[in-house]
Amino acid sequence: MNNPNTIASDKAGNNLSQQTINIGISACLTGNQVRYNGGHTQSRLCLDLLSQCFTFTSFCPEVAAGFDIPRPTMKLAGNPDSPRLVFSNDDSTDLTRELVKGFEKELPKMGHLDGYILMKNSPSCGLERIKVYQTNGHPHPQRSAGVFAKALKKQYPLMPIEEEGRLHDSKLFDNFLLRVYAYNNFKKDVLEHPSLNHLMVFHSRYKYILMAHNQDQCRVLGRLLGSHKNGSLEALIDGYFNGFIEAISKPASRKSHTNALFHILGYLKDKIAPMATEHIVTVIHNYHNGLTPLTTPLTLLKHHLMQHGCEYIKQQRYLEPYPEKISPMVNAFK
C-alpha cells in the first residue's frame, strides 16, 4: 500500500494554467486503503476531474495516529461542543488525544494548501452533521464536525474546505473552484507582496464577483479600503481577507448574477449595435429564467468585451474566475 500521507496526484494544474493549486484531501478518497475495514472510498470526481487542475496532497489522521488497519469502527460521544472519539462498541476509552497527537504536528505544515476536500460522515474528517452519541445510545440533536476537520478549520479559518459528497452539487462544485482560485490569488497577489496598491488592485478585479455574491459586503469592503489612511496595513489586509472570504462563501443566486451581468453590459453601451444589445439582454433574461447556463451570457459578453471593452472590465475575475480551460470540465460535470 502507498503511504497515504504523501502526494497523491501530480497530474495537476500546469497543463491548464501556470498556477499551481495545492489541495489537501482525505486519503481514502484517493483510493488508499485506510478505512476502518481496510478499504477505501475512491472519488472519481477527484481523481478523474479535479486532478486535472489540482495537485492533491493526501492525509489520513487516523493512520497518522497509528490506528490499525483494519480497526474497530469509531464514533463521537458526549458533549457536541467538545465530543470524544471512542470505539463504537466501547465508549470507555477516549481516543481523542491519540488522534490529535497524530495530526497536530502536521497541521502547521498545511499552510501552503489552497483548499481541502474531506470525507463525509467520518468522526475524524467529516466537516459537519456528524452524529454525537449520548450515554443512552441515541444521537444528540446537535451535530458536530469530525475531530480533525474541526482542528483544520480552526487552524485555517479562511481556507476553502468542502466535503467530497457536497461537490456532487454543481453549484457547490463551481463555488468551491471559485473560492480555491480566489484564495490562491489573494495569497499570491496580496499576502506575498503586501501593499495597499496590491490590495486595491485585487479588490478592483474581484468587484463583480463580490457584487454577484454579496452586494452589501462588496460595499463594506469598498468603504474599508476607501477609509484607510495611516492605519496598520496588516490589520487592513486581515480585515479585508476575512470579509472577502465571507462574501464568497456561498454560491451566488441567479438574481445576483443577472444584476452583475447587466452591470457589465453597461460597459458596452453605445459601443455595439442595438440589435446586438437586445440579443445579449434576451440571453441574460433566459439565464435568469433558468433556460440557459451562466456560461452562455458570459461567453457572449466576453466576445464583445474583447473588441469593445475597457481594460478595467476586461480584467474582471468574474469573466474568468478560474482558468478558461477548466470551464468545459465544469460544464460537463454539471
Helix- and strand-based class?
Answer: alpha/beta
What's the total helix number?
14
Average predicted confidence as pLDDT: 91
Global outline: elongated
The rounded distance between the terminal residues' Cα atoms is: 34 Å
What pattern of helices and strands is seen along the backbone? EEHEHEEHEEHEHHHHHHHHHH
Computed over alpha carbons, the radius of gyration is 22 Å
Relative strand content: 5-15%
> Residue ranges: pLDDT <50 for 5 or more in a row?
1-16
Question: How many domains, in number, for the residues?
Answer: 2
Summarize this entry quickly.
With 334 residues, the protein is α/β, with parallel strands linked by helices. The chain folds into 2 domains: 7-168, no CATH class; 254-333, no CATH class.
Explain this structure.
This protein has 334 residues and is an alpha/beta fold. The protein folds into 2 domains: 7-168, no CATH class; 254-333, no CATH class. It has helices at residues 44-49, 61-64, 96-103, 147-155, 170-191, 196-205, 207-213, 215-227, 233-247, 254-265, 274-288, 295-308, 311-314, 327-333, and strands at 7-9, 22-26, 55-59, 74-77, 84-87, 115-118, 132-133, 161-163. The strands form 2 sheets. It has a 5-stranded mixed sheet. Strand 4 and strand 5 (84-87) form a beta hairpin. Helix 8 (215-227) packs antiparallel against helix 9 (233-247) and helix 10 packs antiparallel against helix 11. The longest helix has 22 residues, at 170-191. It is elongated and about 75 Å long. The chain starts with 6 loop residues before the first strand and ends with a helix. Residues 1-16 have low confidence and may be disordered.
